[in-house]
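FYI - complex with zinc ion, inputs then prediction.
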Amino acid sequence: MNDMHAPKEAAEGRLALLKKEIEERREDLVELTQDLLRIPTLNPPGENYRDICEFLGKRLGAKGFEIKLLRAEGTPGDSERYPRWNVIARKEGSGPGPCIHFNSHIDVVETGAGWTFDPFGGEVSDGKIYGRGACDMKGGLAASIIAAEAYIAAFPDFPGAIEISGTADEETGGFGGVAWLAEQGYFSPERVQHVIIPEPLNKDRICLGHRGVWWGEITTHGHIAHGSMPFLGDCAVRHMGAVMGEMEKTLFPALAARRTDMPIVPEGARQSTMNINSFHGGQAEPEEGFTGFPSACVPDSARMIVDRRYLVEEKGDEVRAEIVDLLEKVRSERDNFRYDLKELWHTPPTLTSKEAPVVTAVERGIRQVLACEPVHVLSPGTYDQKHIDRIGRLKDCIAYGPGILDLAHQPDEYVGIDDMVDSAVVMALAIDDLLHRAQ
Ligand SMILES: [Zn+2]
């Protein structure tokens, strides 16, 4: 045996073995995905979390994982009717080594209109599995489970540990899921060293992080009076109109001109953006029974919620200061202009280094399995990586998983079976690489 070729041959042998183990589990992978899709874990309100966690615990417990079912009591949305359950499964290896963790959220968003498949049927058609959450992200969860099970079957004497978690509430901020678990120490770097979040970013792409988020609530104040004599009052909606006018004139063009080197997908998000999430002034409009005839009053308050997404090149306090400056400018130009500004949510951008071990391990896997160059991307919106980074202080974390990002939250959402198989092999190779690296 020529020693110079030994490592390469060994690597090829390991790849072939993992491919075989995963290919043999193809049917199991499809059925597992179907089973997960048939548990409707709609969030809000947070349906059936306990059921899906028990299902996952039962499956992984039977494979020798140690199972923890954890309820995030007292977190937003947690109640006796809708408890926030999470599951963590851990399989210890036969010796010391790092812990590799796969984290998937168990919740899905509402189905919406326009489906031609049963959103909770898990139907298979033309090599795809359809259902709400198929790509975002029960397909990724199933692929990571198969990757781990196949890896353990192929190399039962592996060092370190492998963990799989199913966590609540990602779609509503992750406070009863990853954020809570991170607060309890489940994502501390002493316990877990590498994290892969199988969100649907396409099987040849590695997501390094996301843009920052700043949500603000702006309120303008006026003075109530009879609508037939508006000159006796002061219209808060007109004051807010002036704020919007200033945004159109100066802020939106300034944000659009601010470009980034971050490889965000889609490309349209490679700039600063702001959305006006909501705007309301005057008498409340009830959802039912709205007649279109509010009382004749001058509105004395108006409220707007803005959603600013910012780039690594920007600073969070500058994002807020920019809004304050705009409001101060309006105040200097308008009589009786009074406002309040409240920060509702702030998460700075998260960015894992391209040289991080989990990045290079998945890169290697993509090259071996797909024979193409991996693409680094960043997400326009946030996901649970922020909690692992900020609360857990764990930096070696990426999103990598099967599924087409654009299908997330759409009708007739699906995940391709071949894509799940391929990405499971990439995940298994990444496990192998990370467990055997010098730490
Ligand atoms: Zn997701």
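The chain has two domains: 2-210+349-437, 213-284+293-346. The mean pLDDT is 95.
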